[in-house]
Request: fold
Amino acid sequence: MPSTPYSEQFKSEDFVNNYETVEYSPGSYASSIWEIQKPVMVEWIERIQKGKGGVKLLDFACGTGRVLSELENKVRQTTGVDLSDQMVALAEQKCASSELLVGDIVNDANLANEDFDIVTCFRFFLNVDMTTREQVLSQLRERLIRKDGVLVTNFHGNRNSLRHFSLMYRKSVRGESHSELSPAEIESLFARTGFEITTMAGFGILPPTLYRTPLRGLAFAVDRVCSKLPFLRRFSIDLMYICKPR
Reply:
């Protein structure tokens, strides 16, 4: 868990530069898993909007527009919101037709205060503390419930994955701290904030360190196959969900 408050963490120039040029650089672990995850997410969005007519989508914590740029041409109207004006500036270069807003819905309930059919939120919840997770989910629920909308989100660290043992070692030897939640903890979080899980998928079984070796291609192929096996979902590193307000 970052020691810097999340409102400052996401505005940091170092954070923004690292996210765009290192975390999601070509061939990185994050970009590789995203290549497996992306078509599943798109298929979910296309399935959700069938029968809904013109769909309004909010991408919360839109960052540099990674998710929004994939979806803005697949629904009628898209809005992105993020704390970081630097990230939103990068998103503007990728997202030609989306409304992009800078702000914090926890402290400004009027921000993007509309009814949405779909809210997406990727790589956010493990970067903040539990109180902020609950506050954000409550705000997102308010924007979904009147239109019988759904939340599509992910948690990019699973306490039940193989990677967890590597992170335990790094914590004990190097003092590193990494945020993770188990599927049971995620289910509890959704239940406490008035959401019900309807669909789950998992991505990334093998340790990310393999992606920094000559075995990267093999690791990618194995992880792509494993993402299609339902019994491995709860042991995957990156968990993706569809949830609806109760």
Q: What stands out?
A: Strands lie at 56-60, 77-82, 99-102, 118-121, 150-155, 195-203, 238-245. The chain has one domain: 6-245.
